[in-house]
Amino acid sequence: MPSKRLLVTGSSGLIGSEAVVHFDGQGYEVHGVDNNMRRIFFGDLGDTSWNLDRLRKVTQNFSHHDVDIRDRSALETLFRSYRFDLIIHCAAQPSHDKARDIPILDFEVNALGTVNLLEATRIYSPDAVFILLSTNKVYGDAPNEVPLEEQETRWEYARMEDYNGISEGCRIDRTMHSLFGASKAAADLMAQEYGRYFGMKVCIFRGGCLTGPSHSGVELHGFLSYLVKVAISGGTYRVFGYKGKQVRDNIHSYDVVRAIEEFAARPCCGEVYNLGGGRQNSVSILEAIAKIEQLTGREFKWKYVEENRKGDHICYISNLAKFMSHYPNWKISIGLDEILRQIITDQTQRLHQGDH
Ligand SMILES: NC(=O)c1ccc[n+]([C@@H]2O[C@H](COP(=O)([O-])OP(=O)(O)OC[C@H]3O[C@@H](n4cnc5c(N)ncnc54)[C@H](O)[C@@H]3O)[C@@H](O)[C@H]2O)c1
């Protein structure tokens, strides 16, 4: 039987690289598209070439294409050459703060790049399963309207009915998203449309904090990865507003890829799912700092900046009930402490090797 063919965009990034390794191990012929634009967005700390080198070493059937997803004709050449069974679209400008400085580039990569890929899929691989990594920022700051109570180390939902977090029913308009949230919302809506209007097998995952050792964390993107990087390198971390009690739910890139695998095995058309670490993997910045201090045995240096990031969530926990009811074989398999241990081990090694 011929092997299945997979296209991963953003293949040198956190989620893309996890997908490459996972599906390569399942016998897929894997094609990765990445032009290391994370380095252009974030400078040397965002460079993902170390991860591409790693992928080349650990995979069996992986080809890398240095293609920009804004380049429609290069994508067309790729799609003409290969018929894909599965497309996992992870390439993005991923930071809401960064988008403020580069609104056009942000929109071209996030919105137009996604439409380029959807359209190429419709023309050349219409039966493929298409996965879009979207974000909880499509809800803008609407999740901040949920009543909260202040606890000693975190903000917490005040009502029991909100305990499991934000569901897909949260509205996505009439809120402040940041330009990044808006460009991702455009991509999210277009992907839904290709699913619903054209009947394509499209899935949209609205991510919470996606994390793991393969992240090239920077201050503007990659919460736990960057936190650990600062802890290990001995720098000073800046906490922006909300008393450091803002809550994030963290999901290991492996569990993201497992969710993709479940959807790809039983796809539907244009469905939207929240995907994060959920209640069990939620943590505030203050709590994360305490955990990292405990795990590294070192004091963590940080300073407080009064003004919060624009459009930032105060407490965001992904409600995973919809995905888990549609795909009961899936669950969070890697807990927060294990995630932190893996990131600390990996970053310590990388620091010694001089990788980013
Ligand atoms: N990491 C998170 O916390 C998080 C949260 C919610 C949603 N997401 C979404 O998940 C997806 C994957 O995120 P990630 O954390 O793996 O990001 P990442 O930055 O680690 O990986 C993205 C990769 O895409 C590449 N890329 C960027 N622009 C490109 C272009 N124009 N052409 C080709 N390649 C390009 C980058 O070089 C990078 O290697 C993104 O769409 C992101 O918005 C991430």
Rg, Cα atoms, Å: 19 Å
Strand-and-helix sequence, N→C? EHEHHEHEHHEEEHEEHEEHEEHEHH
- Content of β-strand: 15-25%
Derived from helix and strand composition plus strand pairing, the structural class reads alpha/beta
Q: Main sheet, how many strands, which sense, barrel?
A: 7 strands, parallel
Largest sheet, order of strands side by side?
3-2-1-4-5-8-12
Ligands, deduplicated: nicotinamide-adenine-dinucleotide
Q: Find the count of extended strands (DSSP E, 2+ residues).
A: 14
Q: How far apart are the first and last residues' alpha carbons, in Å?
A: 40 Å
Number of helices: 12
Can you give the mean pLDDT?
A: 96
Helix content: 40-55%
Shape: globular
> Which stretches of 5+ consecutive residues score pLDDT under 50?
none
Write up what this structure looks like.
The protein is of the alpha/beta class. The chain has twelve helices and 14 strands. The strands form four sheets. The chain has a seven-stranded parallel β-sheet with strand order 3-2-1-4-5-8-12, sandwiched between helices. Strand 1, helix 1 and strand 2 form a beta-alpha-beta unit. 50% of the residues are buried. The site of nicotinamide-adenine-dinucleotide (NAD) has 28 residues, from helix 1, helix 2, helix 6, strand 5 and strand 9.
Gist of the model:
This protein has twelve helices and 14 strands.
Relevant terms:
356 residues; alpha/beta; 7-stranded parallel sheet; 3-stranded mixed sheet; binds nicotinamide-adenine-dinucleotide
Task: Map the helices and strands.
Elements (H helix, E strand, L loop, with lengths): L4 E5 L4 H12 L3 E5 L3 H6 L6 H10 L3 E4 L6 H10 L4 E4 L6 H4 L3 H22 L4 E7 L12 E3 L4 E3 L20 H21 L2 E7 L1 E3 L11 H11 L3 E4 L6 E6 H13 L5 E5 L6 E3 H12 L5 E4 L15 H6 L9 H18 L3
Parallel strand pairs: 1-2, 1-4, 2-3, 4-5, 5-8, 8-12, 9-11, 10-14
Antiparallel strand pairs: 6-7, 11-13
Helix pairs in contact: 1-9, 4-6, 6-7, 8-10, 8-12, 10-12
The structure holds nicotinamide-adenine-dinucleotide.
